[in-house]
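Subject: sequence -> structure tokens, single chain

Hey, anyone have a minute? Need the predicted structure for the following. Not urgent.
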Amino acid sequence: MRRVATIVVLGITGLAGAASAQTAAASVDRGYVEVGIQSAFGNVTTQAFSGEFGVTVYPNLQVFFEGGAIRDVATPETGAAAQAIAGSLSQTQSNVTYTVRQPVAFGAGGLKYVVPASGVVHLYVLGGFGIAHVTQDVSFAVAGTDITSSLPTQFGVTLGTDLSGSFTKPMVTAGGGAMFFPGSRMVIDLQFRYGHIMADDGGINVSRAGVGVGVRF
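Reply:
Had a minute. Here:
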């Protein structure tokens, strides 16, 4: 939800003030691994899950790798195309309904810069590049019965690539957050990520805000 994003941003801003008050600089650890759960929002609001690990390659600079899934990034264009087909079917059928989902599996890698600070809070920014696999999960029903598989034979309708199959496209990602160290090895990561999938028709934008939990080493 957008409210979740607001809470995360406010949390990061508050932690920024705490971190800036630290006087002694400290280098980050050798690396970390974490899992995260986020609220994803863009064209639709849904949930996302991710796993991430990073390795320090230079003081306060890490290489990170992230992989995960977003439950839905359905675009207005996809919804409009499905609605047009449903409208056509409604001319001969009653109670026509449809559902549109575009789940995404993604992987990305890049650089993370951790702001030098002592204490238990470290702010960071990151940017990276990867790929996203988008599935076109569109279905149609008449009176509650799924007719998607029988559209070509029974109704003479063949779904195009905008409503069926899947595609893989490059993706760029950027974001920031605050890592909180409540124990000797535990990491709590308040995080925000922006992603742009380089699909057709201007691409797909999706942002994620949430929390990651892991360990550092």
